[in-house]
Design brief:
By secondary structure, the chain is mainly beta. The chain has no helices and eleven strands. The chain has strands at residues 3-7, 10-13, 18-25, 30-39, 46-51, 57-59, 67-72, 77-82, 91-102, 105-110, 114-119. The radius of gyration is 14 Å and the shape is elongated.
Length: 120
């Protein structure tokens, strides 16, 4: 019953900024960690950033200082603010959330992915 809906992808020039959002809905008791992943053509999917329900964050070295992950727990929503974008940031970005539906059911969910393209 859980669904993750992403928005904010698009085309931006190098050096520009873009903000992504991911909203979770459905049968949710609570959300623990959430994260953003990305996958470029011909490459493995990689972790971009994660954030726990307590607000602790971790970033891939390639995006530290440029990307900021955040969440609003009351809205079950996560954000990724991307600045100083580079062509190598071009990828499909995926939202992921570890969701506790009830006492015995905890699992990871994925969004559909959104394309981010950075032109040189």
């Amino acid at each position: 019953q859980v669904q993750l809906v992403e928005s904010g992808g698009g085309l931006v020039q190098a050096g520009g900024s873009l903000s992504l959002s991911c909203a979770a809905s459905g049968s949710i008791f609570s959300i623990n960690a959430m994260g953003w992943y990305r996958q470029a053509p011909g490459k493995q999917r990689e972790l971009v950033a994660i954030i726990t329900n307590g607000g602790s964050t971790n970033y891939a070295n390639s995006v530290k200082g440029r990307f900021t992950i955040s969440r609003v727990n009351a809205k079950n929503t996560m954000y990724l603010q991307m600045s100083s974008l580079k062509p190598e940031d071009t990828a499909v970005y995926y939202c992921n959330a570890l969701i506790i539906a009830d006492r015995t059911n905890t699992r990871s969910y994925w969004g559909q992915g959104t394309q981010v393209t950075v032109s040189a």
